[in-house]
What does this fold into?
Amino acid sequence: MQFLELFLAGLAGLIVSLSVLLFIVRVNHRRELAKRGLPAGKYLRLPAPRLGGIALAGALLVVAALVSIVKNDYLWEHQRWLMLISTLGMFAVGLCDDFRPLGARTKLFEQFVIATSTYLCGIGIAQFRVPFTDQLVELGFWGWPVTVVWLLAMTNLINLIDGVDGLAGGICLMLTLLLVYVSWNTGLTGIFAAGTAGALLGFLYFNFPPARIYLGAGGTYLLGWLIGCDTILSSQKGTVFAALAAPLFVLALPIIDTALAILRRGLHGLPLFHGDGKQVHQRLLASGHSRRNVVLGLYGFSAFFLLLGFLAFYWHGEYFALLLGIGTLAVILAAGRLDFSREWFFVGRVLGNSMQARADIQYAMNLSHCLALEGTRAENLASLAGDVVLIARKLDFSAVKIRLEDDEKIWRLTETPAAHLHSFKFPLAGREYCFLELSVANPDDSAENGKLPESRLNTFSIEAELVAEAWNQAVQDWRQAHRLPPRFDAVSTSAPAADLSREFQLSKA
It folds into this structure.
């Protein structure tokens, strides 16, 4: 009956997910649903609702209810209730963030509270088997930090890879299929994993490029937390090391990508959780690959590591070193085919360039933070545009172009001909035809091929993205405060229009 139960749980999850998502997509045609601006570095199509997590949560609740009714077992064991309640709690944190940004520190604190409460109530890693030996180590007090780190790492890893249509959903589907196998004989743990896999199949129908709905923070937090709890409960029933190590193979891509991103952001002086447009899927998109091809290629990469994960659990971790070596070789071979991966291996040069640019980026962060705060204070978007120009001048940009619904304005900050400018263009969240474009001139005519040195260009790219993110936030806050469209001539009844021509030379494209 085990296979039939898992199949029915997956079918129930699929039906519920498709029904809820179809309802959300149809309602979305009539009104906007959770379409706030995306964090920096998210390559998702807009506009579309970020409420895919509601379908996953609904599927999880329906599967739990059906199990209780069919098995006539309303009193599950304590850990199953705890996993369900804590998963819904983490989903609630993400869903709130989808409607109104909570801030990185607030989210991390709430995640920490939920993880600690979950550990104290009975779900935790109490022991660990040393790889390649039969020795079991009792963690004691250290079980708490290990459990919290594991749960938070899983939760945020899934959120970090949700950067392009279909990517996070597809990788999570592979993970849940692996968990169905890992937790085959662990009762409700396997049934929850099967129900989630079915729900993800329904979600991918709407999320595969071009997406009509996104997971949002609520969906990624739910999936990451559920996967983290599921692996812990499965490890308590079987081989501890193998049950925990197997999912790490499937997560090879986000683990490597996140580790490189943290190192890169740390060297540049950026917040560790700040998007910088340098993750693998972002670089592939920037190289000219379509969203569909990028997602399919990363699916193939993850599917290979899914096979390694199956083998790691099947062999009870005995050949972990061999599988790890195969995985490392696969990463090196794959990286060798990517032009931008070469910079990963020049650690000394990257470190030197980063230290030189660190002060410039920190300065740009402070200026951008001030710009973001101006959204609630500005009388109109014309004055906000003036703030952007002032910041661009301080950061040595040569030109600024801003397109809103009513007009396009250009500020020439230097005498550099347009043909000698390198531009960074960023759409306004929710309105792709509106944009901010910052341009920089080549400061050194002796540079190779008449272009900016790569290190300097990278610094300008980061600075431009910081300014663009602050501009998006300021515009969003201004619109919420005044209930007006993003237009230069939109002025609240109490504010006169600004005359920027007194300070800047203005030309219209």
